[in-house]
Every structure is written in C-alpha cells, then in structure tokens.
Structure of RCK C-terminal domain-containing protein:
Amino acid sequence: MGFIFIILYFLIVALVIEISVIAFTLTGLEKEVARYQAISMLTSTGFTTDESQLIPDHPIRRRISMFLILFGAFSLAVIISAITNILSDDLRLNKLMIISAVLLVVFILGKTPMTKKLLQHRFEYEMKKNLDISELPIKEALFLEEDDIVTDVAIEENSRLDGKKVKEVFKEGRDVNLLFIKRGEMNIRKELAGEIIQAGDKLYLYGNRQVIEDLTNETESDDPH
C-alpha cells in the first residue's frame, strides 16, 4: 500500500508539472524552458539560469511559481512522511486516487485548444491590467518575432566599423537598430546618427539575428588577428 501511495503521489507531482508547463507556455514561454523552470521551482534546485528572470518579472508566471514552490515544499514533507510510514495502512489511498483523477482531468482539459484559447485571453487581460511594458524583461519587451534578438557587439582595433559614423553603418532599411553605445562608463543615446564609432565601444543592438550576425562577422573579418 505504501508503494502505491508513493507512485500515486509522484503521478500527482508529474501532473502538476505538466499543468504548470501548459500555463507557462500560454504566457509565452517555450515548452522546454517552461518545463525546466517548473521542475526547478518545484524541487528548489537549478533555478539559477538567465531564463529564470523571465518568471518573477511576469505577474502570471510569478503566481504559478509561488504555487510550485509551496507545492514542492509540501510534497517533500509528504514523501518523507510516506516513506517513514510505508508499512502503515492509514495512507488514505482513496483520497489520493481522487486527487490524481481530478488533476488528470485538468491536464487533459488544459491540452484542448478551446481551454488554451480561453486561458490565453484571460492571461492577456491580466497582463494589460497589471503589467506596464516598462516592467517586462527586455527580451519580452522587444522580441516581436522569432528571429529578433537583443545583443551587444564589441568594437576591436582595426575593425571595419572603427572610425565610421553610425548613420553609415546602420542605414535605413537594414533590419537592425542601434539602441545605444557604451563607451567606458558613459552610455551614449542622444544624436546617435552623427556619432563616430571608436575602438573599445560596445554597441547594443536590436534586430534580426542573421543581420546582426552578418554585421558581427564583418566586424571580425577585418581584424588581422
């Protein structure tokens, strides 16, 4: 009986994780990222990646993560208690089976297109009501398409861009935008078009990944080293 209890409880944990993954993906997270973060929060381990910042800065994900953290702490106590009392008959298997069945139904419903659509509308409403764009992580605020990225490019000596004006490099129609230039301790944002790029500068860019990679390769190709 004790082993059945543990198996059923692990089934509950697995269903909670998968339901959380569905909820996270409806807020815009990729499934692989959502599952990793859900497991990390539930087990209180590994929640240290750059992607973890996508959770606390988002009001809906923050609520889901709070539940997962609390559920994980509770689950640890339950599993330890079950192992300690593995020979006990009073394991309330009937109630556990009911909980497993309910979660299984929730998981199945969560996979249906209609439920996903309803939840997406609800999440979008919550986002508009509770979150200003200034509170979003930079990736979510600016990543409008799959191939869009925000990155930085360091300008080395003998780079093709060294000594060129910004307006000569970032021409109109090129799918890349210069957000600002970091020069030493100074961030240059005003009147960028007439600014001259210098070795040692770091350019913070936003735009199409391939265009930015091409720009980076052009920069590196002129370095004789």
